[in-house]
TrEMBL record:
GO terms for molecular function: formaldehyde dehydrogenase (NAD+) activity; metal ion binding. The keyword Disulfide bond does not apply. Keywords: Metal-binding, Oxidoreductase, Zinc. Gene3D superfamilies: Medium-chain alcohol dehydrogenases, catalytic domain, NAD(P)-binding Rossmann-like Domain. InterPro entries: NAD(P)-bd_dom_sf. Its EC number is 1.2.1.46. This is Glutathione-independent formaldehyde dehydrogenase. The keyword Repeat does not apply.
Length: 197
């Protein structure tokens, strides 16, 4: 069923929300808005189909408030939108965590402080920069950070993640399915929500 919502080949073969045509279950009842006739180019509303709302939803789920420090894990299109949305909601500082410099530079252009996890430990940096209080965390990775092995989850934290590493797919590279969650749990402010839009 996940494929009906535009997920990857791993979950089915339907194109996502940026396809020329998309099948939206129950679109006539809850999920669609008519694009005004004044909009002449698809590019003007393209990001409203998936990317921008997902990033904003991440900031909303994390309950970003004015003055908050936020860590966005993943600097792709959804992460970019989560950084932008966190600033829109009044965040004082936003940290963008990824390992692709091209993506990090785009979020830096928005004002984010960047952390390349191939070079630095994001948990240590976030702990230091927040003076030990922690940050609000948003997962914008989609699939976990490739090639990084997990540390231990802080005592008292927990997570339940389905491990796809046994799935056979020639284009899917098995990875540690909880690395980003571990970083988020270790970096999160006490009693905050770890946002996974």
């Amino acid at each position: 069923m996940g494929a009906a919502f535009g997920y990857t080949q791993l979950l089915g073969g339907y194109d996502g929300g940026q396809a020329e045509y998309v099948r939206v279950p129950f679109a006539n009842t809850i999920a669609s808005l008519k694009v005004p006739d004044s909009i002449s180019k698809d590019e003007q509303v393209l990001f409203l189909s998936d990317i921008l709302p997902t990033g904003y939803f991440g900031a909303d789920m994390a309950n970003v408030q004015p003055g908050d420090d936020v860590a966005v894990f993943g600097a792709g299109p959804v992460g970019y939108s989560a950084v932008m949305s966190s600033f829109l909601r009044g965040a004082a500082r936003v940290f963008s965590i990824d390992h692709l410099d091209e993506r990090l530079s785009k979020t830096k252009d928005l004002g984010a402080e960047i952390i390349n996890f191939d070079k630095d430990n994001p948990v240590e940096i976030l702990h230091t920069e927040s003076k030990g209080k922690g940050v609000l965390c948003i997962d914008a990775v989609g699939f976990e950070a490739v090639g990084h092995t997990p540390g231990s989850i802080n005592k008292g934290s927990s997570s339940g993640i389905h491990d796809h590493s046994t799935v056979s797919n020639p284009v899917y590279e098995p990875v540690n399915p909880i690395q980003v969650f571990e970083w988020m749990y270790q970096s999160a402010r006490k009693f905050s929500t770890v946002s996974v839009p």
